[in-house]
Design goal:
Elements lengths: L4 E6 L9 E10 L3 E10 L5 E7 L6 E7 L8 E4 L4 E4 L3 E3 L8 E4 H18 L3 H18 L5 E7 L5 E3 L4 E4 L1
Antiparallel strand pairs: 1-2, 2-3, 3-4, 5-10, 5-12, 6-9, 6-11, 7-8, 7-10
Helix pairs in contact: 1-2
């Protein structure tokens, strides 16, 4: 596609210094289409925000997939800041003002959820909750090694999220 456009020296909305870089890039994702990647990063306070938006408007969507092998870790996942990713009985990545859009793979999504669970485990005082977190981490590791099966679901009212695989089931939201 084209070279990424970057504006340097913009005013950061958080630390109010001229250290914000704005970046926009157009990317073609096979079987999904053209998307725009947007990001803002401040070198002073480390504020970061990113998002993914389709070049053409898409209908609200829901994708689900059964993750059951190590090969599934390579499946491409596109998530806009409006998308909700859920792994039933394990965790989710929710939309909201601080949410970031990203392009990753199943392994990257599982790692993000694992990082959230590890953070809860490390900050938690309650031993029962710590134990529950440790069990979730074990389960996520087994899924990443292809030893256990889970369902991954993405729902997006803007249609800017997807799981790109023949195995993925697309349905109306």
């Amino acid at each position: 596609m084209g070279e990424p456009e970057t504006l340097q020296g913009e005013m950061c909305p958080f630390c109010h210094t001229p250290n914000l870089a704005l970046r926009e890039e157009e990317v073609e994702i096979p079987y999904f289409g053209k998307v725009f990647l947007f990001s803002m990063s401040c070198t002073n306070c480390k504020y970061h925000k990113s998002d993914v938006e389709c070049a053409e408007q898409k209908p609200a969507s829901r994708f689900s997939i059964d993750i059951d092998s190590e090969d599934d870790m390579k499946i491409r996942v596109v998530r806009s800041s409006e998308g909700t990713i859920r792994i039933p009985r394990i965790g989710s990545i929710e939309p909201g003002p601080a949410a970031n859009g990203f392009i990753s793979n199943v392994e990257g999504v599982l790692q993000r959820i694992k990082d959230q669970v590890e953070h809860v485990r490390d900050e938690e005082e309650d031993d029962a909750i710590k134990k529950k977190c440790k069990n979730m981490i074990k389960k996520l590791n087994k899924v990443m090694w292809g030893q256990e099966k889970v369902k991954l679901v993405i729902e997006d009212p803007t249609g800017n999220s997807a799981i790109i695989s023949e195995k993925a089931v697309k349905s109306k939201l």
